[in-house]
Amino acid sequence: MPRAGVTKEKIFDVAEKIAAREGYARVNLGSIAREFGIQKPSLYKHVSSLAEIQDALAARGLQGLYNALREATDEAPAEGVNKTKGGRAEGAKALRAAAFAYRRCARENPGLYAAFQATHVKRGRETQEIAQKVLTNVVELLKRFGIPDESVIHAARSLRSLLHGFVSLEMEDGFGLPEDVEESFAIAVERWLLGWKK
Fold first, then answer.
1. Residue 115, C-beta contacts closer than 8 angstroms, at least 6 positions apart
2. Radius of gyration over alpha carbons of the chain, in Å?
């Protein structure tokens, strides 16, 4: 019989706490069971596998990223941006806001960030749908900036590479020199934007 107080959602909550406290790599059935004071087999009364838990964390992380991107960029107008100079400037403003929101999301939720970056985990339908929402949002922002349809996926990949590379190094204390990291990030984003201007 399932132990009182243990539910699927609580298991996901505990896994998220472990990821935040100790890192995503420390999320396993043993660490979760210890938090509840139960044996690992008892978890199978609520979840099918560790992969299900990892997928749930990825979904939470992606939803948090989606919310952060929308909150940061919703105020910029979406119409006419490919046709006017002012529109392109607004598109740049929105992408700049999105870049900083991405970095903030990763820094504030490193465990969940790592969860949705893990490419070896099979994604469930809900997680795939949220990932598609994130991609659609980014594509819309790139188009608002004036990126043509034939280049938009290349632009999305290059932007993701820039942001993920930077935040990964930052979270691993990879920037040891005294120059301001905030300024470095701002310069990197501006150079990326400049590189896609025509």
1. 19, 24, 27, 54, 57, 58, 60, 61
2. 19
pLDDT tens digits, one per residue of 114-125: 999 987 778 999
- The answer to whether residues 122 and 55 touch, using CB atoms and an 8 Å cutoff, is yes
Strands (E), the chain: none
Which domains are delineated in the chain?
78-110+123-195 (1.10.357.10)
Q: Return d(Cα 166, Cα 186) in angstroms, integer.
A: 11
Whether pTM exceeds 0.70? yes
Contact criterion met (CB below 8 Å) for 18 and 62? no
Residue in this structure with the two tokens 């749908």, named with its chain if needed: 129
Per-residue pLDDT at 159 exceeds 80: yes
> What number of helices (H) and strands (E) belong to the chain?
9, 0
Phi-psi category of residue 91: left, alpha or beta, with phi > 0 → left and psi -120 to 50 → alpha: alpha
